[in-house]
Design brief:
With about 450 residues, this protein is of the alpha/beta class. It has 16 helices and 15 strands. The protein has two domains: about 160 residues, Aspartate Aminotransferase, domain 1; about 280 residues, 3-Layer(aba) Sandwich (Aspartate Aminotransferase, domain 2). The longest helix is centred in the N-terminal third of the chain and has 19 residues. It binds pyridoxal-5'-phosphate (PLP).
Amino acid sequence: MLPKIFTNVPGEKSLAWGRRLGEVECRNTTFLSEDWPIFWERAEGANVWDVDGNRFLDMTSGFGVAGLGYGFTAEALRRQSDVLMHAMGDVHPARVKVELCEVLSQITYERWEGRKGKCLFGNSGFEAVEAALKTAVLATGRTGILSFEGGYHGLGYGALLGQGIGWFREPFEGQIAKVTERIHFPKESEGLETFRDELGRVDGSKIGAVLVEPIQGRGGIIVPPDGFLHELRAWCDEVGAILIFDEIYTGFWRTGKMFACDWESGGRQNDEDARLESRGPSEGNQARLESRGPVVPDLICLGKALSGGFPISVCVGRAKVMDAWPESGGEALHTSTFLGNPMGCAMALEAIRCYRSQGMEGVVQHAADQLEFGLSRLVSLNVVKEVRGIGLMMGVQMDSGERVLDLVKAMLRAGVIALPDGPKGDVLALTPPLGISGEEMEFSMELLKGLIEF
Ligand SMILES: Cc1ncc(COP(=O)(O)O)c(C=O)c1O
């Protein structure tokens, strides 16, 4: 539904809740001012209602969580919470945990390689990353990590090892082990040369884990050149490192494929491939093109849209790699109170069932075409430096962070929720729910164009 705004935004009630919160929450958590934030009362589909009764259109999917819209897994939650809200995840687990592990194995390693994958659950996304980093240590005996500038993997101490946006790390640097090498994350427009040079200088014998987002999200919606993941895969194979794809943001059709790494199996093409193909299938060219099969990570981290709204995350890995963990003798080395929570598992099962039954490629493609068309009309405006992204994960690079912040606030006043992104906040991120309607998308695009022109 289109937005409907009855009050100033934020309205009186939101402002009052803001004052109350300011008294009792850590002051670093929620940004509070006269024009920010609105307090949410309920949400459905692509809409959010605030405490003042205003209806908004959420072009963020609530940080990418509300895959097919708010509430699409609510019925599964209701059914599960009626019978079992909690189990003893690593001792006497819920039945649904088994079912979810089986489905996660099917959609990852069984789909990619015809072999089972194994799961290690967490609650928040960063916990899946930490589980992956621990797995890599056990599998390789090496503590070194290779990660990327601009990379974002969450803010737990383990995940901070991979953090590529410096200011998230800096106050805590003294408690973070110096085990990480960070190299440049290449943009699509730059090609792979700088990345190759920098990778060539890394001492692979020390690296146990290569941690990477196939498309950087929080770093400013940065799409790497096609072939990037293939080269990382080849490097990991050469030096014996574990390749970890952090698909917490990009997973579950955000980019138009089930996972962003699925694009490297032929959906996108770099210039060189296009040239090779146009030259025809000489034997050498053919072999090179055919060698570009799917890029399969050793471990994949998933969260956010996995459940559509419950804090559950997972690291799924090749069984051979995951079996680096010793068999449990009664004490798990890595677990937590809520591991494999039955409500989260039931919601994730329902979310994956919905994604698999809806012909998502078509659903996302349709909305993505509309989004791309809307954004293409912005590129001629002089404050817009670049429009980039894939599927329903798009970023508008603008000339300054202030410009994006003003724009985001103006959009909010008009009823559309959006967020700044990138280390400097100068990217407007648009990641709407996958099931957004044509009318909703058109409204947002018209609004955005009008506000930028103004
Ligand atoms: C790629 C990526 N990894 C990890 C995380 C951390 O997830 P969480 O905030 O649920 O811990 C995020 C969160 O935005 C993310 O985008």
